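>> Question from a student workshop board

For tomorrow's exercise we were told to take the sequence and the ligand below, predict the bound structure, and bring the output to class. My setup keeps failing. Could a helper post the expected result so I can at least see what it should look like? The ligand is fe (iii) ion.
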Amino acid sequence: MKKLIGPFSQILTMENLSLSGSLSDDQLKIITNGGVIIEGEKIIKTGHFNDLRKEVSDIIEISSSKVLLPGFIDSHTHICYSGDRSSEFSKRNSGIPYQKILEEGGGIHNTMKATAEATDDELINSTLSRLDRHFSEGVTTCEIKSGYGSTIENELRLLRIINKIKKIHHSDVIPTCLAAHVKPMDFESNEVYLDSIINDVIPHLRKENLSNRIDIFTEEKAFSVDESTRYLNKLSKMFDITVHANQFSSGAVKVGVDVGARSVDHLEIINDEEIEYLSRSDTSGVILPGCSIGLGLPFAPIRKLLDNNCKISIATDWNPGSAPMGDLLTQCSMLSSFEKLSSAEIFSSITFRAAYSLGLSDRGKISPGMIADFITFDSSDYREILYNQGKMKPSLKCKRGKIYN
Ligand code: NIG
Ligand code: FE
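>> Workshop helper replied:
Here is what the output should look like for this input. Compare the format with yours to find the bug.
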């Protein structure tokens, strides 16, 4: 049964925009007084509301001014965890670096401990409530990484929980196996731990259909460039790859590009050679402003990456350590002011460019054939959204053709 929704003051279709490089707002295709025809989970047609209403009798009429955008896609989160790390926030602000806290058995290890102590129900409920909040802030597709398992069994438990959540929640959840986050305390070496993942976690990913995505934290205090390369080379033919790359030091961008990774995420420390290498590849760079805000470190040079024709998306990195805020729009708004980004660049990077970084081609645009995932803001001018610094929240949310207020 076809349904027409509208009229919308502006529909930002996000059509006809390139996957890479900089964008200006005058490249945005905007339909004014627009409507969208949906059927089931899909978008059938867009156009001027008054033209479309001649074709469809079932109409959901919108009374106030609204801007319509594709639902946001958060391609990098760690929201399946328990506990909080507020004491580390204080420590860092007294001058102790994130890496030092990690090296001394805190940081990610603290979350591993708290997560191991939580029951399945506690983990499911806290993750679901984070997803609910995300959905209310416009995120209709959310990637969730494992990575806080203190043992192989606990890591598998998190992957199973993420998959349970995927079945329960109306958002689309994309599970990623980040067993290679940091070596849990009980393993004698990185090599032994990575071998255990290969032998005891990876077979379950296929057998139980837990994930088709592999991530690794490539960094001095986690896994070296050589360890990461060996690990990913064993997996890159069977799985989609993404890498925590260049957060504190250079090197991992090349690792990711060379294994054909879908994305290399973080990029706070990236040199000109690496930018050039990334721009010549099909790999997407994912910028995580929430992590820079959380750690009080400079943003990744997204302006420069776009000007050098890289494929770039933006995600929250929502996690209890470096990025506890998890508010994608607020982070995007801050990043746009500091890095001088257009609305076209920001909205692309959390819609169709983010879909690309996850290997998804069925969402991120308001376009015929796409999944009917879209959100509205109560305004007649899309520029007000980022201008309001995250204070303007979506009003309607439509997920796979179903409307939520
Ligand atoms: O992307 N850098 C590694 N992993 C996460 C942080 C995880 C944590 O601190 O709990 C990140 O920032
Ligand atoms: Fe992360």
